[in-house]
Amino acid sequence: MEFSDILRRRQMVRSYTDEPVSDEAVERVLEGLRRAPSAGFSQGHRVVVVTDPKLRQAAADIAEARYVELGFPRWIASAPVHLYVCTREASYHERYNAAEAVRPGYDEIPWPVPFWWFDCGALFMMLTLASLNEGLATGMVSSVYTDELQALGDVVDLPDDVALAGIITVGHEDTSVRMPIPPGAATRKPNSELVEWRRA
Ligand SMILES: Cc1cc2nc3c(=O)[nH]c(=O)nc-3n(C[C@H](O)[C@H](O)[C@H](O)COP(=O)(O)O)c2cc1C
To answer: Pocket of ligand 1, candidates 69, 84, 140: which has the most ligand atoms within 8 Å of its Cβ, to mutate?
Structure first.
């Protein structure tokens, strides 16, 4: 698939058929993890791959109620693959504190940007685009509630020093399902509102 087509097709999908995704396809998607950038090459990324239907349902049980309230059909457990995008923040502290060059005068750099979350976003997009390249569709499950996000992480028994950013749902889109458009739904802003140039 042309890269420009992959970019054009990038969109969150919230309906999946029961067509399975092969482990081989998931492994190819995970090559995106090997090539993901990380601040200072800290490599704090962690990914948990879930195909077990019980665990997919457990995530849905935690996060799906608000979609149902908005009139969405249930969709989370139907995605055959859940990719838990996680970060180990300690990897960044360890790496930067070991690098004398990046912390002159500091015991710890002040982290004006929490790079561990930034890197999760970059990884999220690499895994998403790699999935599209496999002819698969993706969505995202996160939470605005700390305890709910923690509960989602508990589904896969994350180690104490690893935190969940969100779950990428992966599968084949069920195009027969019509999604409701919530009242007040946003529309895509034109680049003219989002981009500024500073030309000489
Ligand atoms: C950090 C982040 C968290 C998100 N969390 C959720 C979520 O919990 N559930 C969901 O259905 N979509 C979630 N989304 C998807 C956004 O709602 C979606 O990207 C946005 O509405 C634009 O739609 P599009 O991606 O289909 O173009 C999330 C996206 C991002 C980047």
So the answer is: 140
